[in-house]
Amino acid sequence: MKKNFKTGLIAGLLIGVLATAGIGSAAFFATDGFTNLTMEKNRLDLRSINENIRDLETMIDEDYLNKKDNEQLEQYIYKGLLAGLGDPYSEYYTASEYKRLKTETTGNYCGIGVRIIQESKTMKTTVAEVFEDSPALEAGMEADDIIKAVNDVDVSTMDMDEIVNNHILGKEGTKIEMQVYRPSIKKTLSFDIERRQVEAQYVKSEMLQNKIGYISISSFAVATTNQFNSAIKNLRRQGAESLIIDLRNNPGGVLNSAVDMLASLLPDGVLVYTKDKNGKGDHYESKDGQIYYKNDNGYKDKAYPKKDSGKLELPMAVLINGDSASASEVFAQAMKDYQWATIIGTQSYGKGIVQNLIPLTDGTAVKLTVSSYYTKNGSVIQGKGVTPDIKVEQKGKWKNSTLLPPHDEDAQLQRAIKELNQ
Fold first, then answer.
1. d(CA 243, CA 208)
2. Are 227 and 201 contacting, i.e. CB atoms less than 8 angstroms apart?
3. What count of Cα atoms within 13 Å lies in the side-chain half-sphere of residue 71?
4. Domain residue limits, the chain
5. CA dihedral 14, 156, 195, 226 (to 10 degrees)
6. Predicted model pTM
7. Are 2 and 323 in contact (CB under 8 A)?
8. Fold of 108-199
9. Taking CA 121 as the corner, what is the angle to CA 117 and CA 126, rounded to the nearest 5 degrees?
10. Around Cβ 291, how many Cβ atoms within 10 Å?
11. Tell me: the pLDDT tens digits for 272-285?
12. Fewer CB within 10 Å: C terminus or N terminus of the chain?
């Protein structure tokens, strides 16, 4: 079930797969003569648009009650252009937004060390996870706390990005007061927390009964691959003979992280490939301890070593739900295509498109949908999602919850344990 909530570190991580292209604004807008000629019919009438903008600006100057902010007006012209595509994944980032985005993607930021989620309809913002060794944990915050106010500012109906970027993130060493409602005791609590540099923890692991290792992945960021490989090694040292990989509520992230992790688990072969509107794209293949990358648009092929060579030959289950999206779906579908794991849960979100993150020369950036991705068997994920091998709905109060149940009440996890015990 899609619960329609936003999720992130203490800031909303990219809900999608990013394939970063480092070019400037000149390169972004420049085209060769042939392209200009063939695309001319689809060009905007910039002369007419500029005239309309001048007329609108004159109206604002003459009649608008308040003082205008020219910089903000310019930013929203660009934002409006991308919004006009009608694609929720294509957007324009201001310089400050792009700077925060890069911080979130690498997983290092100055904050309090929690992952939060927000229900789109109610705007209720809940702590989904408190990171180990974080300022929030030391102060006493817990998962399931509902954020009500920050520094006496009511944030109960505020968009999550605004809460994070304008109220929680800040300079190292500064303090904030977090006011939360704790449902377990039905009380409102306040915590004074000092901001500090935090490395986000995307991977959590533990040993379950009967030598089953459990790994939960909250997002595919740059740091996720190393955290995942460390978790695998630790569980193997503890005697794990089978493995559950939990991708529920994972919105995706960086494609290369998912590729690297798949390469460490699967036998040699195609991992994922993409196709743009001309039928060309990128190809990732695992072979002989290397990950081979090929691009149809003229870039040279290249290979780089796997983070962890070889394949993992253990019985495995992968958990998904309606909020497993993008890179999570690539991971789950690839494991399914190779019949390398049993997929358990509910139909995934269905986001099978790739965005390029394109830096511009003035420090701003554009995120643009450029292609669709496919796994080994040519499986289409966009608009369809990944179909689990075994469909299991959560039960009781957890059926429509944005949070995952405790292990003993988690119907999907318990079914995975049952399958691996057979």
1. 10
2. yes
3. 4
4. 108-199, 203-421
5. -30
6. 0.78
7. yes
8. Pdz3 Domain (2.30.42)
9. 25
10. 21
11. 999 999 999 999 99
12. C
Is residue 39 over pLDDT 70? no
Calculate the alpha carbon distances from 108 to 25, 84, 104, 127, 388 in Å: 27, 33, 7, 19, 33
The most confident of the ranges 226-230, 317-321, 360-364 is 317-321
pLDDT surpasses 50 at 72: yes
Tell me the mean pLDDT in the region 390-394: 98
Q: Which token pair is 290?
A: 């290397």
> Residue 285 in contact with residue 270, Cβ under 8 Å?
yes
